[in-house]
Design a protein that fits this description.
The chain is built from 12 helices and 9 strands. It has 290 residues and is of the alpha/beta class. The structure holds phosphoric acid mono(formamide)ester (CP) and norvaline.
C-alpha cells in the first residue's frame, strides 16, 4: 500500500519513531537516484522548500519546485488530476496547500506517496524536526516538558501536540479564549496563563500570531495575543529552558529579539533539523527500513 504523510495523527507513534530514527542515520545512501520529487507550493516558504530540496539531493534525487500558478491546484486542474499527473514523473508528490482537504484528495488517488509540507490544519514535517531538536537538547523526548505559548489552534500547535504526546512528552498550551486547540490529544493541558504554562518547562515554544492566509483576522489576533509575547521575563520563569520557534518569527510580536538571540534559543538548530527530518520522512515514504 502506498504510504502518505498528511498528519502526525495518521502517522502514529510507530511512524514518528521510525522517521526520527531514519533522520539520525547517515547511511541512507541514494534511494532516490534517478528519481524526482515534486514540491508544490501554494504559499511562500524558506525552510520547507530549501530543506526538502537538499534532502532530496542528499538521497540522490532531483527536486522540482512548482509555484502555485504553474499547476493551479483546484483551479487549472483538480487536486486529484494534479496528483495523478505529478505521480507519472515523481517518486513523491509533496505539497504546501491552503486547504488540507486538497491533500486528502491527492492522497486518495495518487499511486505515489503524498507529503504534507504545511496545510491550514497540520505541519507534520515541522513537528518531526521539533522532536528531533528536543531529543538533541535533552538526550530524550520522553518526559520533556514543553510549553507552547500563543495560537493553540494552528497547524504548528496541532502537529506538535500530536507528536509530543505520541513521543511521551508533556505539553502545556497557553492561549487566549477562542484560540485553543480543538480536539486536543489526551494529556495536553490547555491554560490561559503563559506563566503557569512555562513553570517547570524544558522547552518554551511559540509561533506567529497571524498565520499565512489569516491576514483578514490580523487586527483581532494582535489584540488577543498581546499578553502572550515570549520575552525575557517569561523565559526567566523557566530557568534552564530552551526556546524554540518554527520560524519565520515576527520579532516584537510573539517573541522579542532578545529571546531569539539569547543563548537559550535553539531556533537555528531546529531549522537545520528540518533538513534531517525531511530526509527521514522521504526515506520512510519510500519504505526504507528504520
Ligand atoms: N517553518 C517553516 O515551515 O518555514 P517556511 O514557511 O519558511 O517553510
Ligand atoms: N503557523 C504558521 C507556520 C509557518 C511555518 C503559518 O501557517 O503561517
Amino acid at each position: 500500500m502506498t504510504r502518505h504523510l498528511l498528519s502526525i495523527a495518521d502517522l502514529g507513534a510507530a511512524g514518528v519513531a521510525e522517521i526520527l530514527a531514519l533522520s539520525e542515520r547517515t547511511d541512507l545512501g541514494r534511494p532516490l537516484a534517478g528519481k524526482g520529487v515534486a514540491l508544490v507550493f501554494q504559499k511562500p516558504s524558506a525552510r520547507t522548500r530549501n530543506s526538502m530540496e537538499m534532502a532530496v539531493v542528499q538521497l540522490g534525487g532531483h527536486p522540482v519546485y512548482i509555484q502555485k500558478d504553474e499547476v493551479g491546484l483546484g483551479t487549472r486542474e483538480t487536486a486529484e488530476d494534479v496528483a495523478r499527473t505529478l505521480a507519472c514523473f515523481h517518486e513523491v508528490v509533496a505539497a504546501r496547500v491552503m486547504d488540507h482537504r486538497d491533500l486528502e484528495k491527492m492522497a486518495a488517488v495518487s499511486p505515489r506517496p503524498v507529503l504534507n509540507m504545511l496545510s491550514d490544519r497540520d505541519h507534520p514535517l515541522q513537528a518531526l524536526a521539533d522532536l528531533l531538536t528536543v531529543k538533541q537538547l535533552r538526550g530524550r523526548i520522553e518526559g520533556a516538558r514543553i510549553a507552547y505559548i500563543g495560537d493553540g489552534d494552528n497547524n504548528v500547535a496541532r502537529s506538535l501536540a500530536e507528536a509530543a504526546t505520541m513521543a511521551g512528552a508533556e505539553l502545556v498550551i497557553a492561549s487566549p479564549e477562542g484560540y485553543r486547540l480543538g480536539q486536543a490529544p489526551e494529556g495536553v493541558r490547555q491554560v490561559a496563563d503563559p506563566v503557569e504554562a512555562v513553570e517547570g518547562a524544558d522547552v518554551v515554544y511559540t509561533d506567529v500570531w497571524v498565520s499565512m492566509g489569516q491576514d483578514d483576522e490580523a487586527e483581532a489576533r494582535m489584540k488577543a495575543f498581546a499578553p502572550y509575547q515570549v520575552d525575557a521575563a517569561l523565559m526567566a520563569r523557566a530557568p534552564g529552558a530552551h526556546f524554540l520557534h518554527c520560524l519565520p518569527a515576527k520579532r516584537g510580536e510573539e517573541v522579542t529579539h532578545e529571546v531569539m538571540e539569547a543563548p537559550s534559543s535553539a531556533v537555528w538548530r531546529q531549522a537545520e533539523n528540518r533538513m534531517h527530518t525531511a530526509r527521514g520522512a522521504l526515506a520512510w515514504l519510500m519504505g526504507v527500513g528504520a
